[in-house]
Automatic annotation (TrEMBL):
It comes from Flavobacterium sangjuense. InterPro entries: Lipid/polyisoprenoid-bd_YceI, TTHA0802/YceI-like_sf. This is Lipid/polyisoprenoid-binding YceI-like domain-containing protein. Residues 5-174 form the Lipid/polyisoprenoid-binding YceI-like domain. SUPFAM superfamilies: YceI-like. SMART domains: YceI.
Amino acid sequence: MTKSTWAIDPTHSEIGFKVKHMMFTNVSGKFDQFDALIENEDDAFETSKIDFTAQVNSVNTGNADRDNHLRSADFFDVDNFATLTFKSTGVQKLNEGAFQITGDLTIKDVTKSITLETEYSGQMKDPWGNTKIGLSVNGKINRKDFGLTWNAALETGGVLVGEDIKLVAEIQFVKQ
């Protein structure tokens, strides 16, 4: 068996999320600074070990006031918890190109196991001779499970920020 290492290509990757605002529309955001590495055997995706880190201070929703609030102790508390991490514990092939990645997500000081639905594109060479793979990743977490509990009640009933966070990522990796 030959061990392969794949590094994330940040210029062709986006790590994002969506959350309900006022209970009826989604607000999207992303992390601008992140890193990830995959190690696998004989380029077989189902043998992959995946390590991902995002710099929480790089959260970007396109609104400076909202981003500063997300960085505060009400949410991510970046002064005490600079990163969020994901470390895979298993990759299961469902069918051709479809996988489930299970792993430990850590936000603030809370670690929980989550499962991510993943579409694997296979390998392709770019025009410069680099071997790449692509992943489309989707999942869902409850933000309160990770200590992200701030909210505000609405006069009409309900809350300002939804509990369920949709995770969405489009990622390219380059074989090292």
